[in-house]
Amino acid sequence: MLPRCLRAFSKPLCIRFQENGILGTIANRHLQFVGVNNFSSTRMSGTPQGLSLEKCSDKKDTLYKSVEIEIRSGEPAVLLSYEWFTSYAAKQLGITIGKCWAPPKAHHNRLTLLKSIHIYKKHRVQYEIRTYFRHMTYERLTESTLKTFLEYIQRNVPEGVAAKVTKKSVVNLPPSLNDSVRRLSLQ
Question: Nearest-CA neighbor of 67 among 45, 90, 46, 50?
């Protein structure tokens, strides 16, 4: 049951709460998970401790058809462990996991230098850098879920791992194209 001070509002309302380390938001009677990072609540007079009030935005969430995350590192074991971590986090948030794969070979970058800086051209040293890749695909996400998920996994990226995120969003056709599609369908 909401406190009396909250029942008086007729406009859309967001209530943020923190109880036993769990953070969340109730927006128009729908519960949403917010996150577990530093959370400061402002207490208004007449509201229980840990609740804060703020105005809801009427902006709709963007839908993403798929999100591909490419991670790269010099250690394949670190990439495998991080893939397991992100997949586990996605399962906990209810995100649909698509294809997770890695190329069969690492990318080799070789550099050949002279041993001596002035002479002895036939004496050389060769250095090699191997870069391993892993690709993970997550499907059918909303913008708010994606922001929460990406923030969580990007804060826990191990040392020496680089991540690249590619998003494919679902958008409406522009009105000019929508009219031409209708005309073609009527013919």
Answer: 90
> Burial, 52: exposed, middle or buried (Cβ in 10 Å; 0-12, 13-18, 19+)?
middle
Q: What is the pLDDT of residues 29-55, one digit of tens each?
A: 444 444 433 333 333 444 445 444 444
Per DSSP, 78 falls in state: H
- pTM listed for this prediction: 0.62
Q: Cβ(112)–Cβ(126) under 8 Å?
A: yes
Please tell me whether residue 181 adopts helix, strand or coil conformation. Answer: helix
DSSP annotation of 67 reads E
Task: DSSP letter for 76, please.
Answer: H
From residue 42, alpha-carbon distances to 5, 32, 34, 64, 105 in Å are 15, 19, 16, 33, 53
List the alpha helices (DSSP H) in 4-112.
Answer: 4-7, 76-93
Residues 96, 18, 39, 84: is their CA dihedral positive or negative?
negative
